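JOB MANIFEST
job_type = single_chain_structure
chain_count = 1
residues = 371
[input]
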Amino acid sequence: MISWIGFACGLALLGITAASAVKTFMIPRATYSKLNRVVAMSVYGLFRMVTGRVDNLARREAIFAVSAPAFLLSLLTTWLACLFAGYALLLWPTARSFPLALRESGSSLFTLGFALPTGPGSSAIVFIAAASGLAVLALMISYLPLLYAAFNRRETLVTMLEALAGAPPWGPELLARQAVIDNSAVLPTLYTRCTEWAADIAESHVNYRPLVYFRSPDTEASWLLSLLAVLDGAALHLALNPSSAPYEARPLLRVGYVTMRKLAANLGLPVPDDPRPDDPIELTRAEFDEAVQWLRHAGWQPERSSDDAWPHFHGWRVNYEAAAYGLALHLDLPPALWSGPRRPGRPAPKAPRRPADRRPKDRQPGVAPPT
C-alpha cells in the first residue's frame, strides 16, 4: 500500500517538474511556476544575504554576477533531482525495495544502464526516464544561447549609453553631454534606437526571466539604470524644449514605461496600472531644479522655465518611477542618481564624472574648424 501511495506521489512530482520545464523552455510568454519560484527565492535570497555587508561595489557586483548562472544550475539540479525521485517512486511497486527503485531510476535517468528493470511496466518507466533526462539536458543546452544572445543585444546599448550618459547613467547628463559638444542632433536617432531596445527588453526579459538578473560587465552599469536614464532624458527634453524636442521622444517614453511596468509586474512588484499625471512622485522639485541648473551650466538652452517645465516632467515620470525604483531595489543595483533608494548601508549616489573637454582652445562649440 505504501509503495502505491509513493507511486501516486511520483506522478505528482513528475507532473510538477514537467510543467516547470515546459513553462521555462517552450511557452514564449510570462508564466508562473511554483518550483521555479522556490528555487529563485532560495538562490537570490542567499546572494542577497551574502552581499548584505559587502560595501565594496566592485566586489558586490562580482558576487551578484554569479547569481543568474547559479539559478540556472540550481534549477537544472532541482529538475534532475525531482525526476530521479519521481521515477524511483514510480518503480517502487515493482522493485523489491525502495533502494533498488532508486538504483533503477538513477541508472535509467542518467543512461548508465547498470541496473536492469524487473518487469514490462518497469521497462516502460525506465525508457521514459532515460528520454526525459536527455530531453531536460538538451533543452537547457539550447536555452543558454538564447539567453546570451539577448544579453549581448541588451549590453550593446548599455555600453553606448554609458559613454553618452555617464557611469552610472543619469538622464540630465545624457542631454548635458550633447550640449557641451553641440551634438544634440544625435538625440532623435538615439531615441529611435532606444525605443527598439526597450521593446526588445520587454519581449526577452519577460519570456526569459533569468535575464533580469544578469549583471552588466561594467561595475557601475546596468540595463535598468540605462533605460531609466534615457527615459528621464527624453522627459526632460520634452518638458524643457517642447517646440524643438524630436517627435521620437514620445514613442520612447511610451514603450519605455510599458516595458518597466511589465517587468515589475512579472516579478510580483507592486506598480500602479494607470497613474494620473498629478499623482505624487518621489523625485523632489529641488532635485529637478538642480538638474536644470546642471543642464544650463553645460550649455543647454531651455525654452521653458523650471516652474513651467516641472508639471510636464512630473506627468511623464509618474508613469515609470514606481516600477524603476521597485526594480532597482529588488535587484540591488549600483547607486545612481534618480534611481530610488537601495538597501540600508549602501553608499549615496554621485553624479557621473564627465570626460574633460580636450578640444583645441581656438575651437569653440558649434564653430567649424578652419580649412
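[summary]
Residues 166-331 form one domain.
The chain has two domains: 2-141, 166-331.
exit_status = 0
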